[in-house]
Amino acid sequence: MNHIVLFEPSMPANTGNIARTATAINARLHLIKPLGFDLDDKKVVRAGLDYWKNVDITLHENLPAFLSTINNAQLFLVSKYAEKSYDQIDYSDSSQDRYFLFGNEAYGLPEIFMRRNPEKAIRIPQNDQHVRSLNLSNSVAIVLYEVLRQQNFIGLEREHLYEQDKLK
After folding, report:
1. Where are the strands (E) in 56-116, listed by range?
2. Annotation-wise, does 133 bind a ligand?
3. Which positions in this protein are listed as binding S-adenosyl-L-methionine (predicted)?
């Protein structure tokens, strides 16, 4: 399973959009506290539309608490400071749990944590001279859809979805 992990997210609309993406791609969403908003904030709810009832979400008290839950799964730290691009990784084994940790919108992931784990860091190429960072919800979509592409979009095939709709 693919897991989207947000470290101390501060913008409710981003989290709502990411929750919608997580639901659309059958990913679990993890939020690491403190959050910069309440989950029932109208901006979060509005961005997530009526999909909130389908979001597979887990809250973690802090980064160490989250890290204690992932066992031997792959962890990727998404940061513009990484050397390796997100598309240089082989994600094709869909049976493996993978966690993609995205930093806070304003300050990213803790610098000391990044320095201790540079081999886990991946980045989305961008022009750093003119843009500080990409929008968080866009970044999540860019990385996770590459993962899904390599996994042949298992579980997201049009025929599969159509059959589910016929059963309703």
Report:
1. 57-60, 74-78, 98-102
2. yes
3. 78, 103, 124, 133
Q: Which domains does the chain have, with CATH numbers?
A: 2-167 (3.40.1280.10)
The residues facing 77 across adjacent strands are 101, 121
Per-residue model confidence as pLDDT tens digits over 122-138: 999 988 777 777 889 99
Does 124 count as an annotated binding residue?
Answer: yes
Task: Spell out the residues 6+ positions from residue 44 whose beta carbon is closer than 8 angstroms to its own.
Answer: 12, 13, 15, 16, 19, 37, 38
Higher pLDDT, 22 or 55: 22
* CA atoms lying within 13 Å on the CB side of residue 74: 20
> Could you tell me the strand order of the sheet in which 57-60 lies?
57-60, 28-32, 2-7, 98-102, 74-78, 121-122
**Residues with Cβ within 8 Å of residue 35, at least 6 apart in sequence:** 8, 9, 10, 15
Quick: pLDDT tens for 80-92.
888 999 999 999 9
Is 10 known to sit in a ligand binding site?
A: no
Q: Is 64 helix (H, G, I), strand (E, B) or coil?
A: helix
**Cα–Cα dist 60/35, whole Å:** 10
Closest by Cα among 53, 50, 73, 84 to 3:
73
